[in-house]
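Hi all, posting the design record for the shared folder.

TITLE: backbone redesign
STEP: 1 of 1
STRUCTURE INPUT:
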């Protein structure tokens, strides 16, 4: 019986470095989404930017929004910006909300979504992403590095030569 291995990550994070932030409002959120791997460079399907932007605006008034409210505000925002109304199906909005939630940037209570504890993004990033997510991913990668060194390192070569 062969063992089927799944390459499904337990968690993942993509980080990119861009120039210093010098842009405003939506473009600032877009660069953050690119930096965090929520958006791919050159991707025109950028509704995640608008979803997060809507939630950041709602944070000011300590508002939590239902996914349908988010969808409607995203449509309004995209129209106001002259952007195509693509990717605004309810199912896609919920998918984008899940992606933001998986990175601990937002939370949901009783189908209402908001920025985590209405906190500052810098605190959320440091506490949830840098300390928790990034550290756990880095420590696992280090385990792989150590195991690779054991398997393919000089000591392993010497042991093989001795046994020959």
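Okay, here is what came back for every position:
SEQUENCE:
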């Amino acid at each position: 019986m062969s063992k089927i291995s799944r390459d499904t990550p337990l968690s993942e994070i993509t980080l990119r470095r861009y120039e210093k932030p010098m842009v405003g409002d939506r473009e600032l959120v877009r660069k953050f989404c690119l930096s965090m791997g929520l958006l791919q460079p050159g991707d025109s399907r950028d509704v995640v930017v608008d979803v997060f932007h809507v939630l950041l605006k709602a944070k000011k008034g300590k508002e939590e929004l239902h996914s349908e409210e988010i969808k409607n505000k995203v449509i309004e925002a995209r129209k106001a910006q002259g952007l195509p109304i693509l990717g605004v199906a309810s199912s896609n909005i919920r998918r984008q909300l899940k992606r933001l939630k998986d990175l601990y940037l937002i939370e949901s209570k009783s189908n209402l979504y908001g920025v985590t504890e209405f906190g500052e993004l810098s605190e959320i990033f440091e506490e949830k992403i840098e300390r928790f997510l990034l550290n756990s991913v880095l420590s696992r990668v280090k385990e792989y590095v150590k195991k690779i060194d054991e398997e393919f390192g000089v000591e392993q070569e010497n042991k093989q030569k001795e046994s020959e």
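COMMENT: The chain has two domains: 13-118, 120-164.
Let me know if anyone wants the other runs.
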